[in-house]
Amino acid sequence: MPVDAVVLSAQKASGLKDALFELRCAAEDIATAAQEGASSEELAALCDELVGLAKQIEQTR
């Protein structure tokens, strides 16, 4: 195994996969809202959610 390899339990890998799915969905929500003419306030709230999800994923250990 390479020295810089990362090993995740099946549970952690599944959790990471779920979190990345949530992140993608949040990004898609922003794209949809923008296409549908959402207000800047609505877009800002969706962006805040996206950033929050990304920060949570960064903390994955």
- Silhouette: elongated
Classify the helix fraction into a percent range. Answer: over 70%
What share of the residues does DSSP label as strand, in percent?
under 5%
Q: Averaged pLDDT, please?
A: 95
Q: What low-confidence regions span 5 or more consecutive residues with pLDDT below 50?
A: none
> Counting H and I runs of at least 4 residues, what is the number of helices?
2
- Backbone structural class: mainly alpha
Question: How many E strands?
Answer: 0
The Cα radius of gyration reads 15 Å
Instruction: Tell me the distance between the termini.
Output: 19 Å
**How can the largest sheet be summarized?**
none
- H-E order: HH
Characterization of the model:
The protein has 61 residues and is an all-alpha fold. The chain has a domain at 19-58. It is 74% helix and 0% strand. It contains two helices and no strands. It has helices spanning 10-35, 40-58. Helix 1 (10-35) runs antiparallel to helix 2. The chain is elongated, with a radius of gyration of 15 Å. It starts with 9 loop residues before the first helix and ends with a helix. The mean pLDDT is 95.
Please sum up the structure shown.
This protein is an all-alpha fold. It contains two helices and no strands.
